[in-house]
Amino acid sequence: MKPFIYDFKRALFRKATMVALVLFLVAGLGLTYISAQQIIKGSLNLLYNGVVLFRLDTVSQKLEVVGGVYDNELNPANIELSLSLYIFIPGYSPGWKTIDLGKYQLTEETRLEIPVPGEIVETPGPGMRVVLRAVITRIRVGTLDISHLNELLPTTSLDNVNNTPVYGGCIFLGQRGSIISIDSHINGCMNIALARDKLYLIMGSPQLPVKPLQIYYNVSVAELTSLTSSTNVGIVNLTGMKYLDDISDVMRIYVFPIELGDVSGHQFLNVSWAVVTSNGEIRGGSGNIIVNIGGTARGVITNYIGSTGLSLFALLFPVVMLYLGYVLIAKPKSQGALEFILARPITRTDLYMTRYIAGILVALTAPLLFVTALYTGVYVVMGVLLSPQDMLLFYLGIAGSLVAFYTLCYYIAVEFKGTSYLALAITLYLFFLIGLQIVGMILAFTIGHASSIDEIIKTQYKLYYFSPLGFTNLVSALVQYNYWVLGEIILEVVKPEYIVVAFAAWTLIPFIAGLLRFKVKNLSS
């Protein structure tokens, strides 16, 4: 085997590099579960959307339940509900009768017939009301299985159907839902699900005053000054709305895809809908639901990764590259091992290149393992498919920081030996990590340019160009801008062409300087 290839293999396949790769893989899985924990704490209902229909027959004393609950990829989610009925009968003492129905599992197109114990008035009288209370006690999405929940859903009234011994009602699960009211009764529920980069309308009705109901919709960009949802009952204005489909069956879940058209790139969308009867005039229920694209499970997780999650790991990753510079150049140089290698038919340029390329391969492979583990883990654990484009940007940012910092450490290792290298490299690492930000903020306030929060943000991101560790933050800023975490002001500072120029400077200058110095440097111990 040629000495060039032999030294390259020894530099690449060593315990330090293998351990580094494993650590990056574990870090990706770790960030997956940290992100899942954040979702569980604050935004669990982002993981699922759906509609559950109820129909109570007081003659047969059965409560029929139909559910359609889906995750962010429109796969069936599993929800456990604890159900109770509250029946108000005028003249009955003490007024409200409470019936506990127990716990039930709901999946896609779940159809249950739950017996209702106790005496129920078969013929509805004036003032009789039936109210259903539902509590989520367990949820399973992906491999995420959370029990011992006690999330009380909005209590829903079961309205009487045409003065018969039948009562119907519904609930919607998730954040973007609404009740459908065509007349004075609750005629159905709807929900907006964002899955597979498309919007879906999930809806159903336990009672239809007229069959079929015609469904119309429209999607537009929501005005930031009026981000409110609303519903109306009465005359429906169909101007500018598109016909979607018909609802002709009761107690059935319908899932309709919605075309986004030219508004798919906006954060807030106003999804309007109308259900229209055909009893001599165009009447029905209409409304609108605000959809926050950045507030979806994908958006929340991606923003957490970009703003907080990466900082937990990415700022520690360069320590691996610092150590590689030590074991590949600084340490063997202090021990005289490099001169021993040069006794073989291998040039100084070959030796410099083999060990530099070995470190660069680690800098490129390690973040690939990290991002792949994160991307796969989030989908398996939470059923959320992150954007491949976002993951690519995260990878480029981390890899860019590692390559730039390793190149700088490699040059320092050429100039200094052993402990001297470690002292200087660690000092620079801490300066880029903490000191540069402090110095920059002091200068900004001293000079007087930081007169607003926008100027402070711009100053902060300008400083990242002066650090080999800053590329992770710069690229993450572009991702966060896409989800509206950072405003337009960030694009004045963070531009792809600026990032490329800074990266080229941080890699080419130390690399060429290190190569020139390595050719003439005394490598003896």
Automatic annotation (TrEMBL):
**Organism superkingdom:** Archaea
Q: What is any one of the record's Gene Ontology cellular component terms?
A: plasma membrane
Which Pfam families would you find in this protein's record? ABC2_membrane_2
* UniProt GO molecular function: ABC-type transporter activity
Q: What is the lineage of its organism?
A: Archaea, Thermoproteota, Thermoprotei, Desulfurococcales, Desulfurococcaceae
* TM segment ranges: 310-329, 356-386, 392-414, 421-445, 465-486, 498-518
| Protein name according to UniProt | ABC transporter transmembrane protein
Question: What keywords would UniProt list here?
Answer: Membrane, Transmembrane, Transmembrane helix
